[in-house]
Every structure is written in structure tokens, then in C-alpha cells.
Design goal:
The strands form 4 sheets. This protein has a 4-stranded antiparallel beta sheet with strand order 4-3-6-7, with no helix packed on it. It has a 4-stranded antiparallel beta sheet with strand order 8-9-13-11, with no helix packed on it. The protein has a 3-stranded antiparallel beta sheet with strand order 1-2-5. About 25% of the residues lie in helices and about 30% in strands. By secondary structure, the chain is α+β, with helices and mostly antiparallel strands. The chain is globular.
Length: about 325
């Protein structure tokens, strides 16, 4: 707790396509290679810290490409946790400044964008964590509390939905809906429930809590909360369906999955200039997510180069 957080951060590697620009040889794709150590300002201890946290909180990545992806998800989750805690604590805490935004050369670092301008997972998470309205669930003493944090200068009203979903796609465990009023410029607990009641006999490792707020204008705010550590979550193998259609400046890509897919990451293989409107997303079972990919690639090459992975693809089974 603090009145104002002026600097905090956590390191990650750039995405693998960025790394290949300064480390094109496969023999250099490991944490202790001379190239990787030359592109790590914090030295051996910094890479060890990333890896130690991965093994403590997540699982063993199956290869170096997966390690770089998971390091970004770890960084994003760590920063999301901090940002939400700071905002829930308003008005005691009224400031939160992230270290850091970008890099002056290609490197593993605390940045949320890499040297080449690609957004890391943290940058996508930050956009949502610093939105004008934030839904933030937190478990305290076996009770799930949902905070609504508002930076708006007027109160707002809308519909809150709290849904406990099975990760394997086999239905809803519990669902709650209510109309709420959100006070202006404050943090408020708008809903709470005993965790045992939420689970309805299911295990924490088998469910995700999805929260949704839709204000009276139709704008939606969402968040997902896990009741167990990521390394204990029993994510099913995610076979993600993808379709795309050309649009001005690139393509709209629509993704879906029969099971809960954690941290879905889109990338274009090769040194291709592109921007993806949202990334490292969670996809709910049976629902679709559509993102815009800005690129000049023709359709055939886009289809060949588009890669989609999730948490279950990156870990040793």
C-alpha cells in the first residue's frame, strides 16, 4: 500500500519474432547464450528471476519460443495485479506510474513495448487495467469481492453479470445478474459471495470467474479471475478456430474455442510490420473474439504466416 506508486515493473522478453531479428541462429535461443546475455541489462540474475517466477507461478515452458510467450504473460499478470490493487485502494492510493513504456534497443526488460514497437502482453493488459471503469475481483478470507473502480466524474448505472464457468466448456456453474449504480470517482465493493457457494462442488482449478459490466450506453467492461495459481489450473488443450476477412488496412480475425483458452496470442511469422488491436486474450467456451490485424500482406501470405497459440500450447504436458 502506498499513497502514490512512482515506479514499479517486472521483466519479460520480447516476442520471439523480435528476438529472431537480433538472434537469428537457433543455437542462441536459450537464457544463457552470449547473445541473450548481451541483450539483458539485468544480467544473469534477471533472467533467473523471470525463470524462477515462471516455475513458481506457471509451468515449465516446452521450448524457448514458449518461454518468451510465457514470460510476457507472467509480466502482464504481475503488472495487472499491481495496477488493480492500486486502483482498488483509492482514495488512499491516487497514483500509479509504470516502469517502463519502451526500449532504446532490443532487449529483455521491464518495457511494455519492445524496441521494434510490438506491444507486449503487458501493454494490452494496461489498456484495460487503466480504463475509466475497472471491474476487479479479489478473494479475501474465502469470499470473492468484486470492486468497481470509477474515474468518471459522474455516477453511472448498468448491469453486472458474474459467471463461474467450467474450463472444459461443460457449462456454467453459477451465474448472477443485477442492476448496479457506480458512484463517481471512487472504488466500491459492488458484489460479494462466499467462494464455496460459487464453486457449487467444483474445484478451484477447474473454473474461471468471468465478470461483465454493461453501462447504459452499451459499453462493456470485463475481467477474468482465477481462484488458484496458474500452475494449478487445469486448462484443457485448446483447439482454436480462426477465420479472417479482408478489411481496410488489413484483416479482421475471428477466433473461437470449445474450451476456455488462456492468453491467446496472435503473431505473424517473419519480419512483418503489423499491429494487432487486442492480444493475449482469454476466450470463453463457445464465444467469439474478433481483432483487427493491420498489415499489407496479401491474403495467401497472411494465412500462411498467422500463428495462434495459448497457455496450453506452451507448457510441457
Amino acid at each position: 500500500r502506498s499513497r502514490f506508486f512512482s515506479e514499479y515493473g517486472f521483466q519479460s522478453f520480447p516476442e520471439f519474432e523480435s528476438i529472431k531479428r537480433y538472434a537469428p541462429l537457433s543455437e542462441d535461443w536459450n537464457l544463457t547464450s552470449e547473445v541473450m546475455m548481451s541483450h539483458q541489462r539485468g544480467g544473469t540474475a534477471a533472467n533467473k528471476r523471470i525463470n524462477d517466477f515462471l516455475l513458481s507461478e506457471y509451468r515449465q515452458p516446452k521450448d524457448f519460443r514458449s518461454f518468451t510467450y510465457m514470460s510476457q504473460l507472467l509480466q502482464a499478470d504481475a503488472m495487472k495485479m499491481a495496477m488493480e490493487a492500486h486502483r482498488r485502494d483509492m482514495p488512499y492510493c491516487m497514483g500509479s506510474l509504470v516502469w517502463q513504456h519502451n526500449d532504446c534497443w532490443p532487449v529483455a526488460s521491464w518495457s511494455s513495448r519492445d524496441y521494434y514497437g510490438r506491444w507486449k502482453a503487458q501493454h494490452y493488459f494496461t489498456v484495460k487495467s487503466f480504463a475509466d471503469l475497472l471491474l476487479s475481483p479479489i478473494e479475501k478470507e474465502n469470499t470473492l469481492q468484486i470492486y468497481m473502480v470509477s474515474d468518471r466524474l459522474k455516477s453511472t448505472s448498468g448491469k453486472l453479470t458474474v459467471c463461474v464457468l467450467r474450463l472444459d466448456g461443460n457449462g456454467v456453474v453459477k451465474e448472477f445478474k443485477k442492476q448496479i449504480t457506480v458512484p463517481a470517482n471512487t472504488s466500491t465493493v459492488i458484489w460479494k459471495e462466499a467462494v464455496d457457494g460459487l464453486l457449487n462442488g467444483e474445484k478451484k482449478e477447474d473454473v474461471v470467474v468471468h465478470v461483465l459490466y454493461e453501462d447504459k450506453t452499451g459499453k462493456k467492461y470485463t475481467n477474468n479471475y482465477f481462484l488458484a495459481k496458474q500452475k494449478d489450473m487445469r486448462y484443457a488443450a485448446a483447439r482454436i478456430n480462426k477465420d479472417f476477412v479482408p478489411t481496410e488496412g488489413g484483416y479482421e480475425v475471428t477466433l473461437s474455442c470449445d474450451v476456455f483458452a488462456r492468453g491467446v496470442f496472435l503473431s505473424l511469422q517473419g519480419n512483418i510490420d503489423n499491429f494487432i488491436s487486442d492480444n493475449y486474450m482469454d476466450i470463453l467456451p463457445g464465444e467469439t473474439v474478433t481483432v483487427k490485424v493491420t498489415t499489407e500482406l496479401p491474403s495467401l501470405q497472411f494465412a500462411e504466416r498467422l500463428q495462434v497459440v495459448s497457455f496450453s500450447d506452451a507448457v510441457e504436458q
